[in-house]
Design a protein that fits this description.
Number of strands: 21
Strand order of the largest sheet: 1-5-7-8-9-10-11
Low-confidence stretches: 1-10, 400-405
Shape: globular
Radius of gyration: 26 Å
Number of helices: 26
Strand content: 5-15%
Structural class: alpha/beta
Helix content: 25-40%
Largest sheet: 7 strands, parallel
Distance between the termini: 77 Å
């Protein structure tokens, strides 16, 4: 059957996609309305009816705004809303619910809002689903757990309900669902699944349920449905041949479904190269290609384009820089030429974003304090939609200074010669330290810690008084002296609490920090910060990524005063706490006019100065966090070596200027770090704390017994869930870790910082952590003193 025949007979024919259509939009609301509603509901301050009213109003406002921006036609705007996570939504839609959460499933096999939140956040009895990074972004998704006997069925009507609701608000939106191939490639085998079981073994069963969902949407009148298949842009455990076969078994079979809406399949986060001809031949009506991280497809790759509508991702959806519109227009013209040469229709091309705009803030309209020269070079989600509308309309006028075009970044601070000269002068010696055995002995003598030392990652709960003091100081209603005293009072409280709990290595709690990256951006040259540039990280967790626009350097010490004050309050060692260069880059919007590695070196050298000042002030342990090390790992294996080279170098630039007795820690969380164990080793930190509790110890499986040569702290408490782990639960995790890591190198710590937790659960969990440690020490005959 030809592509043309398939399209005519299998899909209810409708209008083509509009000329301009993004593939996703921020869902948190410009004022973080979703976050505020969720957290109020979880805290019991509002009931479910009010929660439903608030989220309904957010969706109505979003659809109205998209119509104002030129996306008012049917199916022009994607339905991007999710209560928590798009991967969880897809899993629940087809009944992927772990057996351990059977209690949240209703009689009809569906899961309501409370059940969804139980899977995402855990319950008193059950830990939540594992959470990890969504491809190479700072968004986190919940990992589906599936087994050979998981009952896959049509378990949710959310997509239909959202579409019907969008009709009530005007033109209907385009339902969006993570595609079946990506969903199962991102899933993990449920605990207890037979050895050798792969979630992809359930592909045919999943596709059958997806077909039911499409039929339901067709019956509701949806003209288009968007299936997101970003896994096609990343190297997978499958060979290209097997991946092409899986693509035909999934998307190809859905294209044969009767009845169904027309299908748009998106391939964000990179090029899909030789899989494009396979996808074009599946029989779907439209295919999206990321043309910012992938090249223009060749005529040969477009050979089977036929009547397929191409959706050209010409506007970068992951950065905040304005699109070079004349360049994008030229690429669009070349794409049309190639499509025509391949036998397709040059008119059947829509302009889009490379990825969902969920990765950028809502709008620049809310920003009043950005420097005008910088603001003129920026585009947030709304401005990017304006760009795709202009490109689609051919409204690009390179000679018109009032038209939408790129503005060169040549203003003050973009280039600082002294910074560049320092970076160019670095040598291999600047990234080396003495052998670990020499350092370990010097640190043992200097610190006097017991085996299995206990610590936390850095931050403590940020109570309302702390946030209020920071806000008042920012507004000018609290003077410098009052602000410093408020922070010192909180630091003293945190130090006293840790001493009472019996922790061995303390932290100052970071009350002065609004965010682990923004705090440093505010104190380093080369950055700008926003007022309302919020981006969803996961669930209700939002961050305000800073904008790294220029050469980076440190004008003055940043953390030294707070760390030395904390150390003055206790004889126990207090860690100095810094954010590493890779994470500062990953969680900022970074300049694109020079290689990332060059920028990382600049940040590393700025942090090197801070580490040196901490050491000189008597801080014997310095932790440089790199939770984003795995996050920026390229999706193609061929690009890994270059990335790992510069990322490791920048960390070692920051940490290799200290004496042997100064102990360097790093922390990594919420990514699949077993993939980069070699790079973690290459960081050469004395101690590495790492997420382990939520993934139930997966990282330990990647470490051969005795193979990791330095200290390691596999997290024993998942702090992204409100549940309090028991002492026995933590002790069991420590016993597992001791089977892999020797007691002289094993540290005891939570998975991550405690900023998002409350004090009641924090104190209870830390008491259990210390209790479990004492129990395991006793079992191993380890003394509890120095």
């Amino acid at each position: 059957m030809t592509t043309q025949t398939t399209q005519t007979t299998q899909a209810a024919k409708a209008a083509p996609l509009p000329a301009a259509t993004p593939v996703g939009y921020p869902r948190i609301g410009p004022g973080r309305e979703l976050k505020k509603a969720e957290e109020a509901y979880w805290a019991g301050r509002i009931d479910h009816a009010e929660f439903a009213r608030r989220t309904r109003e957010l969706r109505r406002a979003t659809r109205s705004r998209l119509a104002e921006l030129g996306l008012g036609a049917a199916a022009a705007a994607p339905e991007s809303f999710s209560l928590y996570d798009q991967v969880l939504d897809a899993a629940l839609a087809i009944g992927i619910i772990p057996d351990r959460f059977a209690s949240v499933v209703g009689p009809d096999g569906s899961v309501g809002d409370d059940g969804l939140f139980a899977l995402a956040r855990g319950t008193v009895e059950q830990p939540p689903l594992e959470m990890t990074k969504w491809f190479d972004t700072n968004y986190h998704y919940l990992v589906p757990e599936i087994g050979p006997d998981t009952d896959l069925h049509l378990a949710s009507q959310r997509l239909v309900e959202l579409f019907t609701e969008s009709l009530e608000d005007g033109a209907g939106t385009r339902p969006v669902l993570v595609g079946p191939l990506t969903l199962l490639l991102l899933a993990k085998a449920q605990d207890g699944a037979p050895e050798g079981f792969d979630p992809l073994d359930r592909l045919d069963d999943a596709v059958a349920v997806y077909a039911e969902i499409l039929a339901e949407l067709a019956a509701a009148g949806a003209p288009w449905v968007q299936l997101d298949e970003p896994a096609l842009a990343a190297d997978q455990r499958l060979t290209q041949t097997d991946l092409a076969d899986a693509l035909q078994r999934s998307v190809g079979r859905l294209a044969e479904t009767v009845p169904r809406p027309q299908l748009l399949v998106t391939t964000p986060y990179g090029g899909i190269d030789d899989l494009l001809p396979v996808l074009l031949a599946t029989g779907v009506e439209a295919v999206h290609v990321d043309l910012t991280r992938g090249g223009l497809p060749t005529v040969d790759q477009l050979a089977s384009v036929g009547d397929v509508q191409l959706v050209a991702g010409l506007v970068e959806g992951r950065s905040v820089w304005r699109t070079e519109l004349p360049t994008a227009a030229a690429r669009l013209a070349e794409l049309r030429t190639r499509v025509t040469a391949a036998g397709g229709s040059a008119d059947a091309i829509s302009v889009s974003t490379s990825v969902s705009l969920q990765h950028v803030p809502h709008t620049l309209d809310l920003e009043t304090s950005l420097p005008a020269e910088l603001a003129a070079t920026l585009a947030f989600a709304d401005e990017k939609i304006t760009e795709i509308v202009a490109l689609a309309a051919g409204d690009v006028h390179p000679g018109d200074i009032d038209g939408p075009r790129s503005v060169p970044r040549t203003f003050e601070g973009v280039r600082v010669d002294a910074v560049r000269e320092r970076a160019a002068a670095t040598t291999a010696a600047d990234t080396d330290r003495a052998e670990y055995a020499v350092r370990a002995e010097a640190q043992r003598q200097a610190l006097g810690l017991p085996d299995l030392p206990t610590t936390t990652i850095g931050s403590f709960p940020q109570v309302g008084e702390v946030r209020a003091a920071r806000a008042a100081h920012r507004k000018g209603t609290l003077d410098d002296a009052g602000y410093e005293q408020a922070m010192r009072d909180e630091i003293a409280r945190v130090i006293t609490l840790q001493e009472e709990l019996g922790l061995d290595v303390l932290v100052h709690g970071e009350p002065e920090r609004n965010d682990m990256v923004q705090y440093f951006a505010e104190n380093l040259e080369g950055f700008a910060t926003t007022e309302h540039g919020w981006v969803q990280s996961y669930g209700s967790r939002c961050t305000r990524p800073s904008i790294l626009f220029g050469d980076v350097h440190r004008p003055a010490p940043i953390t030294v005063g707070w760390a030395t004050y904390a150390q003055s309050l206790t004889p126990r060692p207090v860690k100095g706490m810094l954010t590493g260069p890779v994470t500062i880059l990953a969680w900022s919007f970074v300049r694109d006019d020079q290689p990332l590695g060059d920028t990382a070196d600049q940040v590393g050298l700025a942090l090197r100065d801070e580490v040196a000042d901490l050491e000189a002030a008597g801080i014997g342990i310095v932790q440089v966090d790199e939770p984003a090390l795995r996050e920026l790992l390229p999706l193609r294996v061929a690009q890994h070596e270059d990335y790992l080279d510069w990322s490791v170098r920048s960390f070692r630039l920051a940490t290799s200027g200290v004496q042997e007795a100064t102990q360097i820690h790093t922390h990594l969380c919420y990514s699949e770090f077993n993939v980069v164990v070699g790079a973690i080793d290459a960081l050469n930190a004395d101690v590495t704390s790492i997420e382990s509790a939520r993934s139930r110890g997966e990282i330990l499986e990647a470490i051969d017994p005795g193979a990791f040569p330095r200290g390691i702290g596999p997290g024993v408490w998942d702090i992204h869930s409100p549940r309090v782990p028991s002492a026995e639960e933590i002790a069991d995790q420590l016993r597992r870790a001791r089977a892999v890591v020797g007691p002289e190198r094993l540290w005891v710590n939570p998975d991550c910082g405690l900023k998002t937790r409350g004090y009641a659960e924090t104190e209870a969990s830390l008491r259990h952590l210390v209790q479990a440690t004492l129990e395991v020490r006793a079992e191993a005959g380890i003394p509890t003193g120095a």
